[in-house]
Write a structure and sequence with these properties.
Largest sheet: 7 strands, mixed
Order of helices and strands: HHHEHHEEHHHHHHEHEHEEHEHHEE
Distance between the termini: 54 Å
Radius of gyration: 22 Å
Number of helices: 16
Length: 347
């Protein structure tokens, strides 16, 4: 049995090594517009047709489409005398085309053009224990979000990333607990408003205020939320520096993992002071298991926090400890079984 297992180890290690080949294949197909072209086409297309439409070499496109087929991103149709024809799978149509309401295209774009470059410096991050924005992009990381939002273009790309994530995953975390008793909700760092939109859909009696930096609020108004969404409003500010308005519930979705324990207790204490009696805070993060065994996604996200921020992913018990230190008396933890989990602290 031991020998049989040992024979499997090289294959497993090679699969891990080849992971970047898989991700870059996906990134490239999205960037070139392969899935959008095939979605818009009324018929399956040959590699030559795709290459011509996307101004690419026929040989290179043939290889890319073949690899995408192997990844179950495309399906093929053989013709009697002609070339192989390609079309999208259901997964690609729903999650990889720009026009789909559940598209992850913008998340893929951000991973490819920002996070991928930061991860090149992962060995440095592990040795130094700090973010690698300066090496990757030549900008100081002293102020974290000045680095993340280093240009308007980069800020909008980040906002599209968050928008695509909550369009797909938002309902899982907003429905993890019954939030209907909370009528006035502040989404701190609410970014594009995608999670706020999920919240007002699920809880028709609530209103949500997106509390974010002035330039983020401006971009959200221009690119993401329409004036017709009258149960969603904005409040410009920096939640570390400015006072927080009174509310029933505060949402921190993928916020606490950016910061150290000390900064998090500082923020949670401010929330506790502003929170109405009986109110609370909903923390949305990818939780690590209590025995450190996984899940792999959260473990990899924690490495990403090392490369890009001053924070890390945490266990449910660690978030409970932070909430308790900040004054919250009751903490509930809900593992959704999906990518993101929810922790509810009550005052």
């Amino acid at each position: 049995m031991a020998a049989a297992k040992e024979e499997m180890y090289p294959k497993k290690i090679l699969e891990y090594m080849e992971g970047y080949l898989v991700s870059k294949t996906l990134f490239t197909a999205c960037e070139l517009g392969v899935f959008d072209l095939l979605q818009d086409s009324e018929i399956p297309l040959a590699a030559a047709d795709v290459a011509r439409a996307l101004n690419s070499s026929e040989d290179g496109m043939n290889r890319l489409l073949s690899a995408c087929t192997g990844l179950d991103l495309l399906t093929t149709q053989n013709t009697a005398d002609g070339p192989v024809l390609y079309s999208n799978t259901e997964m690609s149509s729903v999650f990889l085309t720009k026009s789909s309401p559940r598209s992850l295209y913008h998340s893929i774009d951000y991973n490819s053009n920002t996070m991928y470059l930061c991860w090149h410096y992962l060995p440095h991050a592990v040795r130094e224990g700090k973010t690698q924005y300066e090496k990757a992009f030549g900008v100081s990381s002293k102020d974290l979000f000045e680095a993340v939002y280093r240009s308007d273009e980069e800020m909008v790309k980040f906002m599209w990333l968050m928008n695509s994530i909550w369009n797909v995953c938002g309902r899982d975390v907003i429905s993890a607990f019954d939030l209907s008793p909370f009528r006035s909700i502040y989404d701190l760092g609410g970014c594009s408003g995608a999670l706020a939109r999920q919240c007002v859909k699920l809880y028709p009696d609530c209103t949500v205020t997106i509390f974010d930096l002035p330039k983020v609020v401006q971009m959200s108004r221009e690119h993401f939320l329409s004036p017709e969404e009258d149960r969603i409003s904005f409040h410009e500010g920096d939640f570390f520096k400015d006072s927080l308005p009174e509310a029933d519930l505060y949402v921190l979705a993928r916020i606490l993992h950016d910061w150290t324990d000390e900064r998090n207790v500082e923020l949670l204490s401010k929330i506790h002071q502003s929170c109405r009696p009986g109110g609370g805070v909903l923390v949305v993060e990818a939780l690590l298991s209590e025995d450190n065994s996984g899940p792999l996604t959260a473990q990899l996200y924690s490495l990403n926090m090392l490369v890009q921020t001053e924070g890390r992913e945490r266990k449910g018990s660690e978030y409970a400890a932070l909430l308790t230190r900040a004054g919250f008396t009751t903490v509930h933890i809900h593992n959704t079984g999906k990518i993101y989990d929810a922790v509810l602290g009550l005052k």
